[in-house]
Amino acid sequence: MPPLNLDEDESSAPRPTRVRWLVFGLACATSFCLYLHRYTWNFVAPELQAQHGWSAGEVQQAYTLFNITYGLGQIPSGMLIDRHGPRLFLTLIIALWSLIIPLQAAGTWLAVAAARLGLGATQAGCYPALAQVTARWFPLAYRTRIQGLVATVCGRAGGALAPILMTSVLMGTLNLSLSITLWVLTATGLLLAGLFHALFRNTPEADPRVSPEEAALIRGQLEPVSTGVPSQLNAAATPRGNSNPAARSHRVPLLDALKLPSVWLIATMQALVAGVDTIYSSLLGIYFISRGIPLVKSGLLASLPLLGGMLGGLCAATLNDWLLRVVARKHVARSMVGLVSNLFAALGMLVLIRQSSPTAVACCLAGIKFFADMSQPCGWGACTDIGGRRGAATVFACMNAGGNLGGYLFPILFGLILERSPLLETVANIPQRDFTPLFTVAAGVYCLAGLSWLLINSSRPLPNSEAA
Questions:
Q1: Mean per-residue pLDDT for 325-345?
Q2: Residue 242 within a domain
Q3: In Å, what is the CA distance from 131 to each residue of 188, 331, 387, 418, 425?
Q4: Which of 56, 63, 68, 147 has most Cβ atoms within 10 angstroms of its Cβ?
């Protein structure tokens, strides 16, 4: 992988400051924590089945409640972030979702349902906010790579570490109860919320630690912002009475976004990809434990697909930045990666259904997730291409809203498929079902997601978006 820091202007004097890399670290930690906490459900679910006798359908219904509020909160969150900035917003939601995490194991249906709804509402705006952070704090030259590292690498790393930390370390080695384990994870989130509020500012211009040279570098300018040249980045923070047309149009980027066919297509693509993604976040714990795999090993096997996704996102982000330099039309570069990666993921699912060993299944899922998550940086990049600094969070929220529609519908579909699949045996009070029909459906969904990239054109931005 080429060096991450590609700032060609840093050799000139005076050298730009490096506050953007502190912002990068905070964004990575936020994405990591988001998935670390979200993937706790993978081992809360079998606990609910074993202790309370919930069926696979009941567990999946509880899981999907997250997606109701997560999906409904996307667009309002994106508009709020584009209007007021991500600093206070992210601080509050990180703290709130961290406090909700332990309530998922409450036991009663109403308590678990309330926890899932609350978790979805508080996590809804996280990635739209991080999309705005990357649009405002990093230049186009390596922005896709930054987005891949933040969203895919760090997010998937948090998801991969969740089963290892929960089952292999805290519950397996230290013999902590599920409830105490969840409270330990809560403490990590509260610490991050405090650090984020103390160290992050909404824009480079709002941060006194940022030199004019760094702010100019971030916007791809040759001259520093101290020359007095006005910028759209500053326009985003101007008062309501400002006569700048970009500042006035900043109020309702959603209306412009919904007029673009590519925004709807990105949302459709994300609905398909995120729908299949629920397999990794809600069913792998049940799959491995129902096949008699010990708890510690189950955690390790369930983490392999997330590690594959982490590597896939990193490769795709690097590949995107390279293609943007060699392909004349940037939307073609995005679509090439999105199409091919999803088709390979579909092929991997067809290979998976021929495997009988749980370890072989976990390795296949890691390969599938490698290709499936290669499309994630493409989606992030397309959203910032279309939204620019004016509406990146809103466009991303549209994509994520579509993703959460898929995240709501597909777990219900998968639960129904499993309940109607042949029963093999029952292990530890958990029925062992044949997953072949479910994995076959997932292969078809990946094919549709890949083909949708043929119609997405991210080269047409929002009006007055200062698209990068």
A1: 84
A2: no
A3: 23, 18, 10, 35, 45
A4: 147
Domain assignment present for 169: yes
Rounded Cα gap, residues 335 and 455, in angstroms: 8
Whole domain around residue 365: which residue ranges? 17-229+249-455
Residue bearing tokens 């290669």: 374
Pair of tokens at residue 217: 């570098």
The amino acid at residue 137 is W
Instruction: Give the angle subtended at the CA of 28 by the CAs of 26 and 29, to the nearest 5°.
Output: 65
Lowest mean pLDDT: which of 23-27, 129-133, 297-301?
297-301
Residue 324 included in any domain: yes
In a domain, 8, yes or no: no
Bond prior to 76 in cis (omega within 30° of 0): no
Q: Read off the tokens for 379.
A: 């989606």
Name every residue whose Cβ is closer than 8 Å to that of residue 329 and which is 6 or more positions away in sequence.
459
Tally of domains within the chain:
1
Residues 6+ apart with CB under 8 A from 212: 224, 225, 226
200-215 tens-digit pLDDT: 999 898 899 999 888 8
Rounded distance between C-alpha atoms, residue 24 and residue 35, angstroms: 17
Average pLDDT of the chain?
79
**CATH number for the domain harbouring residue 422:** 1.20.1250.20
pLDDT for residue 54: 72
pLDDT in tens, 362-396: 899 899 999 988 888 888 788 888 887 667 778 88
